[in-house]
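Subject: Protein entry, chain in single-letter code together with its fold tokens

Area: Proteins and the way their chains fold up in space.

Attached in line: The record itself begins immediately under this heading.
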Amino acid sequence: MSPQYRTLGIVIAAAAILLFPAFSQTAPPTTSTGGTTTKGTAPSAPGLPTVSSTGGNINTNSNTQPPIPPPVRVSGRVMLDDGTAPTSSAVIERVCNGTPHAEGYTDGSGYFSVQLGQTTEVIGDASDGGYKTSPQLGTTGTGSGSGGLGTLSRGLGPDNRYANCELRARLGGYLSQSISLASRGPMDNPDVGVILIHRMGGSESAATVTATTLKAPKAARKALQKGMDLAKKKKPEDAIASLREAVRLDPEFAFAWSELGKLQVENGRAGEAHESFEAAVQAEPRWPEPYLHLALLAVRADNWKELADVTDRILHLNSWEYPQAFFFNAVANYNLKHPDAAERSARSAEKLDTQHQFPQIAQLLGNILAARHQYAEAAVEFRNYLMLAPSAVDAPAIRKQLDDVEKLALASSQVALKEQRQ
């Protein structure tokens, strides 16, 4: 049987993406001007007993520090989003809790290899080790020379020094993708792959800082913070009530609306969440995050028209930083029976997803190509999916699809060969 549009399969692929951490390639809205960041304080570690040099007595001085853990090395390559190497060296930055720290440079071909936190001779700029404004509460203390490592317990427990850190490239006139450094340790493979950078300009106009957040009154920001704290304490009803108070005090507080929507989603209130994200969009139409949450709700509701419209808006604001937006757009157009538009968006998603966070892109391309009777090309995509996600829930079904298209590809090639001989 010739493969047709597999709507159900694509719905499953789209739903599976909801399991990924939301919007991993971008940070919450912050600004590098005004205010300061809170300095992380390492907790005191229990002293380790040592042998005294004057008689062998046990010294239990609680100020004894454990050994500093070995450094973490990362390597990779910076490339322009057209596939070429930058013509100038880029600075490799570690960004922890919103504060950037220069780590090293790329070479003439864009390659880099650095030890995190070990480099002192890199020349920074005004943003390096500078200031940060909290999207919730404004200024928050002084900058940390420790690299924003927060509650690092040196040498104790798992290596989580970089739990709130990302790696990016800095080159004048360009925007950079970010790669999470969470849970990265000294024994991990240092290769982080490719970091794409994108020349600023064009029609893109996304906001990374919401103006409504910066002008929110103190009482509204206080209610927002209280709500977020209550959410962490697993008190969702009280948290929702506090966030509602924040937006009552400031109906244009986009960040508070978005946080309220996320909490409503988590507690099964999709309809209310949709209204909250729409309010965030109305308050700050150039901020991509609430659009992304609306896209997730559209996926869950099988609302392909809304999904196409919302993701079109995201990509108009920022056409390169959101591979998941391109993927969702491809899913929407596939289910709307617009295969050419679906393939264009899927190819763009594949290009931007340098960390292979969304293997479902390959599954979607396989379905598009199979529906066009391009069986050999479809087989390549299904193999890519199984290579990237061999243990996925739908892996057995994809193996069956692969077997089907391989047989059809063989039959098609035999027919073509027979026609050539005639």
